[in-house]
Amino acid sequence: MKTYSKIVALVLFTCVFTISKAQFRLDLEGGIIPGTSYNRVRIPSIGGTQVNLSKDLNSNNKVFYRIRLGYTFAKRHNILLLYAPLTLKYNGSFDRNINFNGQNFASNTPVDVFYKFNSYRLTYRYNFIEQGRWQVGAGLTAKIRDADIRFKNEFLDTHYDNVGFVPIINFYARYKPNYHWSFIVEGDALAAKQGRAEDIFAGTSYQINSSLGIKLGYRVLEGGADNDKIYNFNWVNYISAGILVSL
Q1: CA–CA separation, 222 vs 233, rounded Å?
Q2: Is the Cβ–Cβ distance between 43 and 100 less than 8 Å?
Q3: What confidence tens digit (pLDDT) does each residue in 156-180 have?
Q4: How many domains does the chain fold into?
Q5: Domain holding 50: CATH number?
């Protein structure tokens, strides 16, 4: 009984000690999507008409937001949860007939295209460098992709949706010349025969006090897939700002 009590006490002490050394973080990011460098779509991959939504249609600046929760324990171990919704709208008319998802959209007819690419991610990252002004880490991200492409005009309305799991490599590098300023490059990226995915942020942050900071930078979301069902590759530009809260 005494041995059992000692074990319980040791477990409780370890948990309390770990929590006391842990740090919770909240990263609220938002800004403007000034445009997409390209957004090439062909559905179905065999038989569909390839279009470049960024070139063939019009789009407006889009406001975006992201929410990320972070938990650091034992100084070097990080658990991250990210919710990153994304919906883009294109409108105009194509200069040729378009076969999308088995439907024929006639040329010179107004059409709206809604492009959704929501992302849910769970990341584990280990900081293998914690020295002086540098912090560098790498890990793995489990990503759930919730995508949907919808073409709609006065006569037709069709869409292709896809939900899937994607494993990605996570990386992080920060250079901190002084207490207030940091320069950061971080993201998720992976390439394979079937496609690729990159979500990368580069920018700077300013630490106001021990609990609050702000950041500003550029983010790019690039990648896509090429398989029997779908061909889609895009490049989305973000002008990004955010609030960093540490607890």
Answers
A1: 7
A2: yes
A3: 999 999 999 999 999 999 999 999 9
A4: 1
A5: 2.40.128.90
Establish if 12 belongs to a structural domain.
Answer: no
Residue owning tokens 């901190």: 176
Q: DSSP states of the chain as a string?
A: -HHHHHHHHHHHHHHHHHHHT-EEEEEEEEEEEEEEEEEEEESSTTTSPPEEHHHHSEE--EEEEEEEEEEEETTTEEEEEEEE--EEEEEE--SS-EEETTEEEPTTS-EEEEEEEEEEEEEEEEEEEEETTEEEEEEEEEEEEEEEEEEE-SS-EEEEEEEEEEEEEEEEEEE-SSSSEEEEEEEEEEEETTEEEEEEEEEEEEE-SSSEEEEEEEEEEEEEEESSS-EEEEEEEEEEEEEEEE-
The answer to whether residue 241 is domain-embedded is yes
CB 59 within 8 A of CB 69: no
The two three-digit tokens of residue 124, written as one number? 């584990």
Query: What is the per-residue pLDDT across 122-165, written as a single tens digit (0 to 9) for each?
Result: 999 999 999 999 999 999 999 999 999 999 999 999 999 999 99
Distance CA 128, CA 138 (A): 8
